[in-house]
């Protein structure tokens, strides 16, 4: 029941992100969209840290994912499949920040930088940084969602030589 | 009667004009498909300048295992690296193109197939890409590109 309550809250939060950005002529106001996408980042971060499966709502049902090491992924079911294992990892964290946001009519194209942390094979915490490219569209309720998403890791950081 | 016929004939035309979308999205998608085929041909020919010319001046590229690069000079350098003996064969196939209603932005994803020169023979690498296209002065250019392999490392051809 408590989990369901949280799901509803996240659903409402993401639903609100995206409303009120349209100018009277129907075009989106880039400043308003950027503000919504900053809220989107924060809400995504909060959902990850709350281990909330409602993080799925940040992704369109017909999501296209370009992920290293595997063929193109269609749909968001793969996220639902990996979430339980990620959420069991106490070290797991994921954060991203949009770097360049371009509003084109009803679509946003944005690049972003991300950081992901998880437990490594040796028991330590592994941190991966990378960059991504996303196309975001709005749900019927007006919430922004990842529609197409591509990401690649940066090269591993070199340790400083003494 | 003639006048009446003219008015009747004009009415459907006017209705069609009012209902027609401002941007012919299908035509724009075809234009991008042609541009995409053009850059694949340039890449297959390992032509650095022609390949680079398909990118917007401030385009970004996000290769796997490298930091993001920006601008035609950096992209030219990346192509120079790929085309300096590493790449043996290249093919790319568009899977899907979406054109935004504005007609100024489009996005495409597809499949790449590369044969690379390895130290012990040819290596096959199958991958995929996401390209964001932007229309500048009536022509489509790649504004952003991300690409990665489907495998952790290229595989020896034929195995």
Protein described:
The complex is a heterodimer of chains A (about 160) and B (about 160). Chain A is of the alpha+beta class. Chain A is built from 3 helices and 6 strands; from the N terminus they run ααββαββββ. Chain A has helices at about 1-15, 30-50, 75-90, and strands at about 60-65, 75, 95-105, 105-120, 125-140, 145-155. Chain A has a 6-stranded mixed beta sheet, with helices on one face. The longest helix of chain A has 20 residues, at about 30-50. Chain B has about 160 residues and is of the alpha+beta class. Chain B is about 35% helix and about 40% strand. Chain B is built from 4 helices and 7 strands, in the order αααββαβββββ. Chain B has helices at about 1-20, 25-45, 50, 70-80, and strands spanning about 55-65, 70, 85-100, 105-120, 120-135, 140-150, 155. In chain B, strands 1, 2, 3, 4, 5, 6 and 7 form a 7-stranded mixed beta sheet that branches. The longest helix of chain B has 20 residues, at about 25-45. Chain B is globular, with a radius of gyration of 21 Å. Classes of the chains: A alpha+beta (about 160), B alpha+beta (about 160). The interface of A and B includes residues 69 and 153 of A.
The rounded Rg of chain A comes to 17 Å
Oligomer: heterodimer
Mean pLDDT of chain A: 85
Estimated radius of gyration of chain B? 21 Å
Count of beta strands of chain A: 6
Structural class of chain A: alpha+beta
State the largest interface. Answer: A-B, 27 and 34 residues
- Proportion in helices of chain B: 25-40%
Outline the biggest β-sheet of chain A. 6 strands, mixed
Low-confidence stretches of chain A: 1-19
- Global geometry of chain A: globular
User: Element order, helices and strands of chain B?
Assistant: HHHEEHEEEEE
**% residues in beta strands of chain A:** 35-45%
Question: How is the biggest beta sheet of chain B arranged?
Answer: 7 strands, mixed
Number of helices of chain B: 4
Q: Identify the overall geometry of chain B.
A: globular
């Amino acid at each position: 029941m408590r989990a369901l309550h949280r799901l509803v809250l996240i659903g409402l939060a993401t639903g609100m992100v995206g409303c009120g950005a349209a100018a009277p002529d129907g075009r989106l106001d880039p400043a308003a969209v950027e503000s919504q996408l900053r809220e989107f980042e924060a809400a995504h971060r909060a959902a990850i840290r709350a281990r909330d499966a409602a993080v799925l709502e940040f992704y369109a049902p017909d999501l296209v994912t370009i992920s290293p090491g595997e063929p193109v992924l269609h749909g968001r079911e793969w996220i639902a499949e990996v979430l339980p294992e990620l959420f069991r990892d106490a070290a797991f964290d994921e954060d991203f920040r949009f770097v360049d946001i371009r509003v084109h009519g009803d679509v946003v194209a944005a690049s972003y930088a991300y950081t992901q942390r998880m437990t490594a094979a040796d028991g330590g915490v592994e941190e991966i940084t990378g960059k991504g490219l996303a196309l975001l569209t709005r749900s019927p309720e007006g919430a922004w969602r990842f529609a197409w998403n591509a990401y690649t890791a940066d090269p591993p950081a070199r340790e400083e030589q003494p | 009667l003639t006048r009446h016929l003219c008015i009747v004939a004009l009415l459907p035309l006017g209705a069609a004009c009012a209902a027609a979308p401002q941007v012919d999205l299908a035509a724009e998608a075809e234009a991008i498909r042609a541009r995409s085929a053009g850059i694949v041909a340039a890449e297959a020919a390992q032509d650095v300048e022609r390949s680079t010319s398909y990118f917007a001046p401030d385009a970004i590229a996000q290769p796997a295992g490298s930091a993001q690069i920006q601008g035609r000079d950096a992209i030219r350098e990346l192509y120079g690296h790929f085309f300096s003996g590493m790449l043996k064969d290249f093919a790319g196939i568009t899977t899907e193109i979406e054109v935004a209603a504005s007609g100024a932005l489009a996005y495409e994803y597809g499949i790449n197939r590369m044969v690379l020169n390895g130290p012990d023979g040819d290596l096959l690498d199958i991958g995929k890409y996401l390209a964001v296209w932007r229309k500048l002065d009536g022509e489509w250019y790649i504004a952003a590109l991300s690409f990665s392999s489907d495998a952790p490392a290229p595989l020896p051809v034929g195995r």
